[in-house]
Amino acid sequence: MLVNYMAFAIPLFLALMLTEYLVSRKQKKAVYHFESSITNISVGIAERFSDALITGTFFFVYDYLQKHYGIFTIKPTIVTGIVLLLLTDFVWYWYHRFAHEINLFWAAHVVHHQSEDFNYTVSARITLFQSVIRTGFWCILPVIGFPASMITAVLIVHGLYPFFIHTQLWGKWGILEYILVTPSHHRVHHASNPEYLDKNYGDIFIIWDKLFGTFQAEDGRPIVYGLTKPLRSNSFLWQHFHYVIELVIAMKRQPTFAGKVRLLFGRPDEVGDAPRVIAEKYFGIRRSTMAANRGLSHYVIAQVGTLLVLLFAFLLFADHIDWPFQILFTLFLLLTLINCGAILEQRTWVFSLEYARMILLCSAYLLYEPDLFMLFPLLALVTVTIIYYRPLKKLYLAWVY
Length: 401
What we know:
Layout: H1 9-26, H2 34-69, H3 78-101, H4 103-109, H5 128-138, H6 140-144, H7 148-160, H8 183-190, H9 207-212, H10 236-252, H11 257-264, H12 274-283, H13 294-316, H14 323-344, H15 350-368, H16 372-387, H17 389-400
Helix pairs in contact: 2-7, 2-13, 2-14, 3-4, 3-5, 3-7, 4-10, 10-11, 10-12, 13-14, 14-15, 15-16
Keywords: Lipid metabolism, Membrane, Monooxygenase, Oxidoreductase, Transmembrane, Transmembrane helix
Transmembrane segments: 77-95, 135-164, 296-317, 323-342, 372-389
Protein name: Putative monooxygenase
């Protein structure tokens, strides 16, 4: 049976995260916080899953562009591989810079900068929207003439390296500081300190920042991580869509069509503070002031841990999974991620999500094990839950919170 060995990246990265956590504890550094780590990993789960579903599409696009519009026909060699890596990082620099300077692109990239921690889990904060946009930038590579297989191989390397620079435990790297993007450089990039804003956009090489005037060295001052306007929400959906909503509100406040378009392609600081206030009030966004108790923490860890195991299995055997199961798993994964964020915020409507997840699990079981003997107990379970919905909800909330 053919399996996807890239799935083993999940346990590898989790092991590295655990190692960083243990080292930080030994060094008495408060690098990890529970809620932040859970939300970071949750975003990463969604990205890894969506990436598995659409990676083939990206490969097809690269292959089609190279075969039909490629200016040159470039053969894979060590030299062309190095050239491609440099070009990939150069294109990334400009994508990344535009993602910070243009509202339309910032709406997709902002999720990566929401965490007020800075550790290996932050590297997981990539969204499907960001993947699609940066793929659009990388489409120049097959047009130049690089084959899709070569681009894919280089992008794997280009995607792995940044994981290791999302850390506070590494100091400066000596002479490599002049060539590579190091943890020190990337700490500056994730800082919300005024003197560090919009700096160090490179992914592997820092030379682009030095060439185009966006380099800033870490100077030893304490760094504050996250957004200049902290999100203060653990909601999975709000983290992904808050800036889109803020941007829409800000555009509606523009009196002319030209003003709306100008804002869409304008800088994030032009949006202002008012749209965030309006959006949070309308959607009732708030962060719970109560710390997660031990039981709640264990329950969320169990849910995220289960998802990680299921995601690993899904990626490992992705080529053998039919589309009905993929749809059911997609819905279950999204509901669980939304549920975990809502539990961290101690929302009362989480019981409805739990009920929906139960129905999905029952549906999946009946789809693959159409056993009449089990049909009636499952229907009875659903019926009892409907009849005693309110008392069960009360018991559930008392148990979780």
